[in-house]
Inverse folding.
């Protein structure tokens, strides 16, 4: 009995060892395969994203003809220019105002869509998402035509109420308003869809419990809806902050930075200086100023995404 | 006496129910009212594109009501659809978008499979890195990329700047990270038992991917494809930087740079071109709305 038991283990041992080594081989093979499968991705990211990002730092330290190292010369030059500070200010105003309004409108519209009977929701959602689907360059052309100085359809309509004509893109303050308006129009549907998805995931029982406790609609939003949606609101807002801060199409087509550089944001000014003005190093320096705010937003998004990953 | 009390009780009870349902009806009415307002706000620019595209140039410059077409004409459509230049833009856009979709899928599906199922050294870091890459905007990379491709042209003699196919190298930087990220999410939601069963039956990793993962995660795949296509179709900054000759332009840049000649805006044709340029994403959206929305929300809710 004992012998057979020993015999069995003795027989089992080599098999186990063989199994382990083939397992190791398999593991090795598996990780090689896995590496090969991710290699195109790694190459793409390394060569066309990470390398250009660092290359841009290098470019920013060269002079205009890109032959001489000037250190922080480009940055010192920028700090002395009024236009640069105008761009910094306008980028912040543009991004923050647009994101706040997008988030607010998205939240309100999502509530209204959530309120109506389920069978009609699809239709409304479909209509309200159209601005997000149209390529922004194309829809901005429509806005440009709506804002046209002499044939503006808006001014025609406002004329009936005795308002206007409003210089939508001609006056600095109105032009700033216009670029934000178009950006809100384009981006609010994205918030609406994200919030709608989040609203659907809030359990109905929580609202029933709140209703039994006598909560009014405001308290239901403040104590039930918002805490349940906190995560998705944070991620959506931060994500939108990045996209809005880096926006190019809308400002470029609507005002091209004018009047008098008053609506330039980092991306459009970097394009104007770097590509149109063929001062590549200076353009690279301008766009590098986007990095700090993007990095901060990215860190917070990453933290939230990881938290969500750990919870699930 | 008894009828009287019943009469009294009846109305009060009715009023109570009535007030609640009346609140509900009013809330509904307000919802519909505001939704109508927002829908008008959303749909005015595309509708105005359509209205303008049906007008002749005389009507556009006339001082009539801009919101109505008095003499509908298809001359703008006829003009654009017979212009070789415009068809060339359309063809370039279609080529770039379709090839980019194929490249994106070829890179991101195997990568997502490896990152979600075959844990290897650094795989978690790489997944995070992919997500971070997705957050790097085009407006940060266009200058160094332009300089890089100009330098490749100088060093090797292969001229890539001002060729439409240079966009095939650049667009994947926008599409691959996001597609990989959502595919990781979709693949991770497939039960482990499924691929373990396949491995036990002697399937190789490649077979597991093609026979099990791709069919099961098909909705995610469609969502990723739609995303890659719409992003490539709508991209404006890169083609504006990298291409300048009229025969190399893609649709959005082509419309903006060739139909606006100096201060002369041919609005009828611009709006027609914009509408035709917006049509492919809109058609995809109309037919595959659920996949479109799934792709949109997956970015933040999966993972």
């Amino acid at each position: 009995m004992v012998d057979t038991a020993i015999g069995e283990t003795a027989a089992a041992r080599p098999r186990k060892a063989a199994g382990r080594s083939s397992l190791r081989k398999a593991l090795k093979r598996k990780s090689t395969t896995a590496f090969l499968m991710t290699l195109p991705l790694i190459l793409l990211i390394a060569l066309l994203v990470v390398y250009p990002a660092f290359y841009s730092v290098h470019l920013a330290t060269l002079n205009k003809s890109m032959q001489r190292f000037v250190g922080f010369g480009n940055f010192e030059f920028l700090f002395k220019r009024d236009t640069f500070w105008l761009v910094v200010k306008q980028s912040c105003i543009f991004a923050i105002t647009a994101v706040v309004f997008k988030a607010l409108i998205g939240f309100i519209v999502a509530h209204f869509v959530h309120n109506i009977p389920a069978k009609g929701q699809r239709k409304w959602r479909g209509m309200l998402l159209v601005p997000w689907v149209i390529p922004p360059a194309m829809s901005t052309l429509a806005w440009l035509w709506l804002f046209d100085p002499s044939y503006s359809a808006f001014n025609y309509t406002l004329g009936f109420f005795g308002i206007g004509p409003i210089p939508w893109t001609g006056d600095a303050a109105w032009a700033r308003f216009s670029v934000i308006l178009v950006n809100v129009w384009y981006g609010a549907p994205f918030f609406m869809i994200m919030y709608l998805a989040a609203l659907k995931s809030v359990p109905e029982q929580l609202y029933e419990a709140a209703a039994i406790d006598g909560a009014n609609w405001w308290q239901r939003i403040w104590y039930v809806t918002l805490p349940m949606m906190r995560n998705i609101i944070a991620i959506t807002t931060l994500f939108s902050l990045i996209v809005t801060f880096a926006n190019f199409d809308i400002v470029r087509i609507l005002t091209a930075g004018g009047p008098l550089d008053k609506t330039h944001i980092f991306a459009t000014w970097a394009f104007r200086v770097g590509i149109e003005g063929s001062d590549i190093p200076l353009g690279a320096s301008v766009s590098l100023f986007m990095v700090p705010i993007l990095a901060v937003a990215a860190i917070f998004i990453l933290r939230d995404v990881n938290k969500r990953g750990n919870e699930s | 006496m008894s009828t009287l009390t019943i009469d009294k009780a009846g109305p009060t009870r009715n009023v109570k129910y009535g007030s609640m349902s009346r609140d509900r009806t009013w809330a509904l009415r307000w919802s519909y009212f505001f939704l109508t307002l927002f829908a008008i706000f959303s749909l005015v620019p595309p509708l105005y594109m359509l209205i303008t595209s049906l007008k002749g140039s005389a009507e556009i410059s006339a001082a009539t009501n801009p919101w109505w077409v008095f003499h509908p004409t298809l001359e703008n459509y006829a003009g654009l659809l017979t212009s070789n230049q415009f068809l060339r833009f359309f063809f370039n856009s279609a080529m770039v978008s379709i090839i980019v979709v194929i490249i994106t899928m070829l890179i991101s599906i195997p990568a997502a499979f490896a990152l979600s199922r075959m844990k290897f050294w650094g795989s978690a870091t790489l997944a995070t890195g992919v997500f971070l890459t997705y957050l790097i905007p085009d407006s940060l990379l266009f200058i160094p990329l332009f300089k890089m491709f100009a330098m490749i042209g100088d060093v090797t003699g292969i001229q890539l700047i001002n060729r439409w196919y240079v966009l095939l190298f650049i667009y994947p930087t926008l599409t691959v990270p996001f597609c990989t990220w959502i595919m990781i999410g979709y693949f991770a939601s497939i039960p482990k038992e499924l691929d373990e069963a396949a491995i036990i039956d002697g399937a190789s990793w490649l077979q597991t991917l093609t026979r099990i993962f791709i069919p099961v995660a098909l909705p995610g795949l469609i969502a990723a494809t739609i995303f890659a296509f719409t992003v490539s179709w709508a991209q404006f900054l890169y083609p504006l930087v990298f291409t300048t000759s009229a025969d190399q332009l893609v649709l959005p840049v082509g419309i903006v740079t060739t139909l606006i000649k100096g201060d002369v805006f041919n609005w009828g044709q611009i709006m027609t071109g914009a509408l035709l340029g917006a049509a492919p994403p809109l058609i995809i959206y109309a037919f595959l709305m659920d996949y479109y929305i799934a792709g949109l929300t997956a970015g933040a809710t999966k993972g």
Observations:
- The two ends of chain A are 50 Å apart (CA to CA).
